[in-house]
């Protein structure tokens, strides 16, 4: 059962849209931080590496309408299909391309102003695999381009994520909306999603970082880290980096 669960986890989540529906507000807040650290320029060419169901598109749609071009890649066909569907629903499909591709295999093609890996590299269990993926991403960034990565921290905690999410929904959408999330949605988020991820992180199947490890991994891959902040209720780090001179 567990093997089935871990193999099909993202795929079933994307196809059923449970991934979208159960994602906690704190996760969306981390995506808002990605958008907040983007360069101001209108004509950015952005790669979403490990795009999953393209949730980030929801937060980039405004920028895409203003001139950004978005490319998403993911190893899962179900993710790519959902991302393309979302682009159509958001009315931005003409500036969105998505492909099935493995981050650990050599990726050739156009270069990007911004490469984002939002909670994707940590699912590669070994440091070697993550370095392969980072080398590939490095080869796709323009010389003055920006890398934005978010990954779980060693302090990943399902309860804190839910608590922060309820608070965020209350502030953003009011008491009733937060009550609905708290009683009808987030119990499933925790049971099906966050607890499983927490288990994978604690067993070492997936990578949970200290701030230093996160920084070192990017430095080792040839990036110069600009900035690291806590996101996701202290359960993750978000970093920006540029190619090292
Ligand atoms: C936690 S999901 C994050 C998805 C999306 N970035 C988001 O924040 O909603 C992790 C994603 O990484 C993708 N992934 C894992 N290993 C990959 C690989 N080797 N190549 C491409 N994508 C990969 C998975 O298929 C999954 O879609």
Ordered list of secondary-structure elements with their pairings:
Layout: H1 2-16, H2 18-22, H3 25-36, E1 45-49, H4 55-65, E2 69-74, H5 77-89, E3 96-100, E4 112-118, H6 127-140, E5 141-152, H7 158-173, H8 175-203, H9 211-220, E6 223-231, E7 236-243
Parallel strand pairs: 1-2, 1-4, 2-3, 4-5
Antiparallel strand pairs: 5-7, 6-7
Bound molecules: S-adenosylmethionine.
S-adenosylmethionine is lined by residues 10, 50-52, 55, 74-76, 79, 102-104, 118-120, 123-124.
Describe, in plain words, how this protein is organized in 3D.
- The structure is a single chain.
- α7 (about 160-175) packs antiparallel against α8.
- Strands 3-2-1-4-5-7-6 form a 7-stranded mixed β-sheet, with helices on both faces.
- It is an alpha/beta fold.
- It has a domain at about 30-155 and about 210-245: Rossmann fold (3-Layer(aba) Sandwich).
- The mean pLDDT is about 95.
- The radius of gyration is 17 Å and the shape is globular.
- β2, α5 (about 75-90) and β3 (about 95-100) form a beta-alpha-beta unit.
- The chain has helices spanning about 1-15, 20, 25-35, 55-65, 75-90, 125-140, 160-175, 175-205, 210-220, and strands spanning about 45-50, 70-75, 95-100, 110-120, 140-150, 225-230, 235-245.
- It is built from 9 helices and 7 strands.
- Bound molecules: S-adenosylmethionine.
- S-adenosylmethionine binds near residues 76, 104, 118, 119 and 120.
């Amino acid at each position: 059962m567990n093997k089935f669960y871990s193999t099909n986890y993202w795929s079933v989540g994307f196809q059923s849209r449970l991934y979208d529906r159960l994602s906690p507000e704190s996760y969306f807040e981390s995506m808002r931080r990605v958008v907040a650290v983007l360069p101001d320029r209108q004509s950015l060419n952005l790669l979403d590496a490990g795009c999953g169901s393209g949730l980030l598109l929801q937060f980039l749609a405004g920028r895409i309408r203003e001139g950004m071009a978005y490319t998403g890649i993911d190893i899962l066909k179900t993710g790519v299909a959902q991302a393309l569907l979302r682009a159509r629903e958001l009315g931005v499909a003409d500036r969105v391309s998505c492909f099935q591709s493995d981050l650990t295999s050599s990726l050739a093609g156009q270069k990007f102003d911004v490469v984002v890996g939002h909670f994707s590299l940590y699912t590669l269990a070994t440091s070697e695999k993550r370095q392969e993926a980072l080398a590939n991403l490095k080869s796709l960034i323009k010389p003055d381009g920006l890398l934005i990565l978010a990954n779980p921290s060693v302090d990943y905690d399902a309860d804190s994520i839910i608590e922060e999410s309820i608070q965020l929904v209350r502030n953003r959408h009011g008491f009733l909306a937060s009550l609905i999330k708290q009683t009808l949605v987030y119990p499933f988020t925790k049971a099906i999603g966050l607890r499983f991820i927490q288990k994978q992180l604690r067993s070492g199947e997936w990578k949970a970082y200290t701030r230093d490890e996160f920084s070192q991994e990017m430095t080792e891959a040839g990036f110069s880290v600009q900035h690291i902040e806590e996101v996701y209720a202290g359960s993750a780090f978000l970093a920006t980096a540029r190619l090292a001179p």
